[in-house]
Each structure stands twice: as C-alpha cells, then as structure tokens.
C-alpha cells in the first residue's frame, strides 16, 4: 500500500521561473514538493502549477514532520494562502459529515504541520478520532476502535494542557471519558470546563447545565468509585471474573444504581451466562426507567445487551421487541439495526434480515458485520 509521500516529487526551480514570483522570500536552493496525481507518475515540468506546489506542501505538513524545510514551507503557505486554516478546517468538517474520515484526518494533520501550536486543530483531531472510534465500534471492529480511542485520548490530553485553558477541550473530553466509563476523569474534565468557561451565550449556558447534571449524577451514584472503574477495566481486558467481584462489591453499597447492574450484566453476558445476564439487564432497565438521565444515556445500550441474551435464550419475539424499543430512541443506531437482522435470521426470515443489513450499510458503508452477513452462504 502506497504512502501519501510516495506521490510527491521534489524539484528546484530557478529564480527566473514564472512561479517564483508568487512565492514571497523565494529561495531557489530549497527543493519544493510537487503533488502528483498518483505514485510513480512521470513528472512533466511543463505542467507545473502553483496548486501542485501548495498541495505538495500540505502533504509534507501532514506526513513529514521531520522535513528540514518546514519553516520555509510554512512561510510560503501563509504568504500564498493567508486564509488556508479557515478554508481547510471547513473542508475537513464537510468531509467528516460525508463520512470521509481519512481525508478529514489528512487535512487536520496538514493544519497541524502548518501551525503545531494551534490548539483548535489538536481538538479537532481529538474529535475526529473519537468519532472514528465510535464508527469502528458500531461496525464490530473493537481493536480498531481501541486504537482510535488511544489517539483521541492523546489529542484530548494535549488540548486540555493548553495555555490559556481551552474550555471546549474540557467539555468534549468529559464526554469522551463518559463513554470510556472513566467517570473520575469525566467529572474532573467537566469541572475544569465549568471553572474556565466565561462565555455568556445561550449555547454555553446549556452546556454548563448539562455538565452540572452529569457531575451531580456521577457524585450521587459514586460512579467515580474505584470499584466501579476497576470492574469496568477488568471486563474490558477479558478478566470478567475479577470484574464480577468488583461490581458485586460496588452493588452491595449502591444497589439502586442502574450502571452497576448494567456492568454486572455485561460481564455475565461475556461469560455466556445468558439467564443471569438477562436478570441483571432487566434490573438495570427498571432502575433506569425511574431515572431521566438513565433513560437518556443508558436505555439503548441496556436494551441491546438484553436483546442479545434473549436471542441466545431463544426468546426471539422479546428480543426483537427490545431492539425496536431501542430503535425508537436512536433510529440510525447500526448496532441495533444489525441485531434486528440477526433476530430475523434466527427466525428464518432471510429477506427481512438482508433488509436490515442493507440499511446498516446505507448508514455506515464500512460496517464489516453487515457486509459479512450479506455475503453469507444461503
């Protein structure tokens, strides 16, 4: 597989060349990167354009951070395209909306190369990696999701260390840590957001209320308790029995916390103890129903896990009903739609199952499970 740098050639152009005029501070002794349309393409000097040079410089910014001439290339780019940061940021956001994560990543990496101290770009990279992790996890690609999570964490950490502080970084990192079930770090990040955010807009006021509500929920339920975090970590790394010990001890002190019952069910489900897991998830749903925040943050995940247990226990109608309830909350959740396809298969309804899997691919063309199921032997 070729690398983006493989499609570059470096050339020296003389002072007399027509293109030297657009370059402020031009130095003919420094080679310029030229972007070709494909690796191995033969370079024709007669076709050289300003755009090819600028595109080549952006590729160097993205993928060659050790290049000896970075400062020179930065000065060229800033002189030739003073609005490049705003234009490329808008382009990257559009790519993300269209699902072209790889191109968005390359654009943000180019912006980092242009200005390594730009914290906004660091945060944008964190948000992108965060979203890519979610996409991979929805597709059942757990290892790839974990890798993107690690990259997101590294970028969030860098953004949160910025001076002066960047409230936006703390707010988004807080939600990232919530998904990681790292409630202690989530609370710390959201508290830092509240301490550093001075904006008075309605949007910020709404964010502050959300942050306060999450902090209150974490505190009131002791979700930042070491036992809860230990249980989650043990289960994540495949040590479910140790996770069970920790979460059961947590539940002895907090029997009304739905998150604990969810964690218990998750460990039992991974151990294929379907009936025990079912009971835990049913308890989690009952507790979440009496908790507005629980219905917002946990209902879909609980329903999905419960549906898996019911499917394995042969209670297909109940499994389907669970998934439909979840789908009513999140109509484009590919994990839920794919599991509806699996239930249909268990019932022998192959056409219905294929319809669900095709819907998954319409939402996320990269979903590996849906592709495999549509390619299955009939």
Summarize this structure as a short list of keywords or feature phrases.
TPR repeat; Serine Threonine Protein Phosphatase 5, Tetratricopeptide repeat; globular; repeat; mainly alpha; two-stranded antiparallel sheet; 2 strands; 378 residues; 2% strand; TPR_rpt; 3 domains; Tetratricopeptide repeat protein
Describe the overall structure.
By secondary structure, the protein is mainly α. It has helices at residues 50-63, 70-80, 84-97, 101-114, 119-138, 142-160, 167-179, 183-196, 202-221, 226-236, 240-253, 258-270, 274-289, 292-297, 299-312, 316-329, 334-346, 350-363, 368-374; strands at residues 8-11, 32-35. A two-stranded antiparallel ribbon has the order 1-2. The protein is globular. TPR repeats lie at residues 258-291, 334-367.
List the helices and strands and how they pair.
Elements: E1 8-11, E2 32-35, H1 50-63, H2 70-80, H3 84-97, H4 101-114, H5 119-138, H6 142-160, H7 167-179, H8 183-196, H9 202-221, H10 226-236, H11 240-253, H12 258-270, H13 274-289, H14 292-297, H15 299-312, H16 316-329, H17 334-346, H18 350-363, H19 368-374
Antiparallel strand pairs: 1-2
Helix pairs in contact: 1-2, 1-4, 3-4, 4-5, 5-6, 6-7, 7-8, 8-9, 10-11, 10-12, 11-12, 12-13, 12-15, 13-15, 15-16, 15-17, 16-17, 17-18, 18-19
The third-level CATH topology of the largest domain is Serine Threonine Protein Phosphatase 5, Tetratricopeptide repeat
Instruction: Figure out the total of helices.
Output: 19
Strand order of the largest sheet: 1-2
- Please report which band the strand proportion falls in: under 5%, 5-15%, 15-25%, 25-35%, 35-45% or over 45%: under 5%
- Shape-level CATH architecture of the largest domain: Alpha Horseshoe
Taking all residues together, what is the mean pLDDT? 90
Query: Which bin fits the share of residues in helices?
Result: 55-70%
What is the gyration radius calculated from CA atoms?
Answer: 25 Å
CATH class of the largest domain: Mainly Alpha
General form: globular
Distance between the termini: 34 Å
Order of helices and strands: EEHHHHHHHHHHHHHHHHHHH
State the fourth-level CATH superfamily of the largest domain.
Answer: Tetratricopeptide repeat domain
- Stretches with pLDDT under 50, minimum 5 residues: none
Summing up helix and strand content along with how strands pair, one would put the structural category as mainly alpha
The tally of structural domains comes to 3
The total of beta strands comes to 2
Taking the sheet with the most strands, its summary is: 2 strands, antiparallel
């Amino acid at each position: 597989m070729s690398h983006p740098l493989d499609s570059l050639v470096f050339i020296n152009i003389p002072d007399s060349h027509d293109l030297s005029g657009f370059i402020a501070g031009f130095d003919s002794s420094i080679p310029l990167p030229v972007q070709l349309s494909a690796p191995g393409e033969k370079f024709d000097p007669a076709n050289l354009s300003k755009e090819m040079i600028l595109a080549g410089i952006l590729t160097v910014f993205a993928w060659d951070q050790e290049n000896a001439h970075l400062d020179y290339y930065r000065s060229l780019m800033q002189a030739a395209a003073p609005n490049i940061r705003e234009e490329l940021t808008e382009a990257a956001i559009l790519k993300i909306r269209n699902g072209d994560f790889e191109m968005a990543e390359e654009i943000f990496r180019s912006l980092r190369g242009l200005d390594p101290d730009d914290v906004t770009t660091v945060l944008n990279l964190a948000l992108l990696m965060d979203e890519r992790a979610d996409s991979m996890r929805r597709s059942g690609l757990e290892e790839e999701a974990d890798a993107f999570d690690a990259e997101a964490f590294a970028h969030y950490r860098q953004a949160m260390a910025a001076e002066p502080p960047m409230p936006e970084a703390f707010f988004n990192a807080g939600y990232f840590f919530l998904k990681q079930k790292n409630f202690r770090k989530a609370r710390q990040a959201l508290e830092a957001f509240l301490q550093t955010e001075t904006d008075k807009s309605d949007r910020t006021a709404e964010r502050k209320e959300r942050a306060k509500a999450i902090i209150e929920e974490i505190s009131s339920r002791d979700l930042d308790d070491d036992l809860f975090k230990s249980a989650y970590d043990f289960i994540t790394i495949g040590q479910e029995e140790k996770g069970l010990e920790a979460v059961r001890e947590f539940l002895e002190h907090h029997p009304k916390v739905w998150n604990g019952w969810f964690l218990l069910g998750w460990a039992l489900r991974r151990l294929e103890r379907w009936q025990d897991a079912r009971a835990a998830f049913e308890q989690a749903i009952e507790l979440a129903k009496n908790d507005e925040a629980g219905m917002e943050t946990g209902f879909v995940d609980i329903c999905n896990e419960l549906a898996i247990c019911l499917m394995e226990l042969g209670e297909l109608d109940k499994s389907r009903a669970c998934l439909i309830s979840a789908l009513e909350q999140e109509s484009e959740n590919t994990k839920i739609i794919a599991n509806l396809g699996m239930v249909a298969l268990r019932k022998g309804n192959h056409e219905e199952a294929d319809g669900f899997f095709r819907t998954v691919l319409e939402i996320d063309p990269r979903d590996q499970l849906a592709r495999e199921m549509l390619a299955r032997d009939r």
